[in-house]
């Protein structure tokens, strides 16, 4: 049966000699998703939105959502902003035993099978089968073999296929999922420690991954599904951490890029591409890294916008302010579990890291009720000044120069939420440039 998955268009275009890719937006932040879908509606493009296994799983993840909940959450935002939900591609990132690596193989894989089953049933059409992590009963001082990684991956794909066949009985037009494999997988959310030098994936390792996975597919009776594997996660030499960015160097990745040409049915998926310049992102797509994962950079930009709006608020009001910055700091100090292991400097250093670190741990707190209330109050207060024509253009230009120009030129509305969301749009524009939209 012909696979109508829209992500296959990337493969087809590249086989025809075109430069084609797609941004993969890995975020559960409501304002960020709103911004992405609003921009997508203007462009008329498909939008790939992904959730990681630690964000969404059968036990709720840190968002409290199952895959079905996440789907409904994204679709509700799409309905609100007028984006065609049929153009949303839902992706499952790091789906496998990531959050159960402390369990033995039997229990961790049982949980993983349930997770991918729920993802397929919920309509996720891009699934990253990540089995690269050791489990509790794996040999602690030995490298996890490619055979074991691929064996577990094949078992998960078999469950996905079984679930898809169940969906087909209900809807003969159900689109088949596609899959991402690969064992050189950066941790979600960026590196925790500074790395002096990143090692680009060796060609032999990339080709070995394909060879062993294909072999395992055959052993599990999945040979016909090999064509549904459209991407391999590799390390092309990009990463970010607390205060450093490893920028893409196409010279360092040229051998890996050249090797991909022998396998026209797949592309590379690049993780941790956050904070790369649009020119480097474009080079990545040209070199075969056609799926560009980005997450923390979106909420980092959102935080920048909220801080800028807070500065405008402080100029306009002497009392009864939303105090967004202070509220965010208070909540992060009261609940340090999402940042404490990542920021280990002095008190003053940690204060700055909580606000400005590239790893953007404050994103975990945007759904906190106090933080959400502060954002709402900030927007309401600024919009009140706007409605009374009290927000001077020069004040907007001082703290939001890009947004000032876009308001001036009629590209965005002079509204508090639109001003802040445009910070996210600025990030997305770099990815759209790179992908060839």
Rg over CA atoms, rounded to whole Å, is: 22 Å
Helical content stands at 40-55%
According to CATH, the fold-level topology of the largest domain is TIM Barrel
Strand order of the largest sheet: 1-2-3-4-5-6-9-10
Q: What is the β-strand count?
A: 10
**Distance between the first and last residues' Cα:** 29 Å
β content, as a range?
A: 5-15%
Number of domains: 2
Contiguous uncertain segments of 5+ residues: none
Mean pLDDT: 95
* CATH C-level label of the largest domain: Alpha Beta
CATH-defined superfamily of the largest domain: Aldolase class I
Number of helices: 15
Coarse morphology:
globular
Major beta sheet, specifics? Answer: 8 strands, parallel, barrel
Class inferred from helices and paired strands: alpha/beta
Can you give a write-up of this model?
- It is a single chain.
- This protein has helices at 8-15, 30-43, 67-81, 105-121, 146-170, 203-219, 254-260, 278-286, 296-316, 324-334, 347-356, 369-387, 393-399, 401-408, 416-435; strands spanning 22-26, 47-52, 88-95, 126-129, 178-181, 229-234, 239-240, 245-246, 267-270, 289-294.
- It has 437 residues and is an alpha/beta fold.
- The radius of gyration is 22 Å and the shape is globular.
- Helix 2 packs across helix 15 (416-435).
- The protein is built from 15 helices and ten strands.
- It folds into two domains: 8-294, TIM Barrel; 299-423, GI Alpha 1, domain 2-like (Orthogonal Bundle).
- The mean pLDDT is 95.
- The longest helix has 25 residues, at 146-170.
- Strands 1-2-3-4-5-6-9-10 form an eight-stranded parallel β-barrel, surrounded by nine helices. The protein has a two-stranded antiparallel sheet with strand order 7-8.
């Amino acid at each position: 049966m012909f696979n109508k998955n829209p992500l296959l268009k990337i493969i087809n275009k590249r086989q025809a000699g075109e430069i084609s890719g797609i941004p993969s937006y890995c975020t559960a932040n409501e304002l960020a998703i709103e911004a992405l879908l609003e921009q997508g509606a203007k462009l008329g493009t498909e939008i790939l939105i992904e959730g990681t296994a630690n964000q969404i799983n059968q036990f709720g993840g840190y968002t409290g959502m199952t895959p079905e909940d996440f789907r409904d959450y994204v679709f509700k935002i799409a309905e609100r902003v007028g984006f065609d939900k049929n153009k949303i591609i839902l992706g499952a990132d790091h789906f496998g035993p990531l959050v159960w690596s402390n369990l033995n193989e039997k229990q961790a894989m049982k949980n993983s099978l349930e997770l991918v089953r729920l993802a397929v049933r919920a309509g996720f059409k891009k699934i990253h089968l990540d089995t690269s992590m050791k489990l509790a009963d794996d040999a602690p001082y030995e490298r996890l073999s490619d055979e074991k990684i691929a064996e577990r991956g094949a078992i998960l794909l078999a469950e996905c296929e079984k679930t898809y066949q169940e969906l087909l009985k209900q809807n003969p037009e159900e689109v088949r999922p596609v899959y991402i494999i690969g064992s050189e997988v950066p941790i979600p959310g960026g590196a925790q420690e500074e790395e002096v030098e990143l090692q680009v994936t060796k060609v032999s390792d990339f080709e070995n991954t394909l060879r062993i996975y294909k072999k395992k597919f055959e052993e599990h009776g999945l040979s016909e599904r090999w064509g549904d594997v459209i991407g391999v996660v590799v390390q092309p030499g990009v990463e970010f951490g607390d205060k450093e960015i490893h920028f893409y160097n196409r010279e360092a990745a040229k051998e890996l890029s050249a090797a991909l040409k022998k396998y026209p049915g797949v592309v590379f998926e690049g993780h941790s591409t956050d904070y790369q310049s649009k020119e480097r992102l474009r080079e990545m797509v040209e070199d075969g890294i056609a799926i560009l994962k980005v997450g923390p950079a979106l909420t980092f930009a959102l935080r920048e916008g909220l801080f800028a709006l807070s500065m405008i608020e402080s100029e306009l009001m002497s009392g009864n302010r939303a105090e967004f910055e202070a509220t965010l700091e208070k909540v992060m100090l009261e609940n340090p579990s999402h940042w404490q292991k990542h920021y280990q400097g002095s008190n003053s250093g940690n204060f700055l890291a909580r606000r400005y670190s590239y790893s953007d741990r404050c994103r975990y707190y945007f759904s906190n009720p106090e933080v959400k209330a502060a954002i709402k109050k900030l927007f309401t207060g600024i919009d009140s000044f706007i409605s009374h024509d009290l927000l001077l253009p020069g004040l907007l230009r001082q703290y939001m120069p890009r947004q000032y120009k876009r308001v001036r030129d009629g590209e965005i509305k002079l509204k508090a939420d639109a001003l802040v969301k445009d910070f996210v749009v600025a990030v997305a524009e770099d990815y759209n440039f790179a992908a060839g939209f």
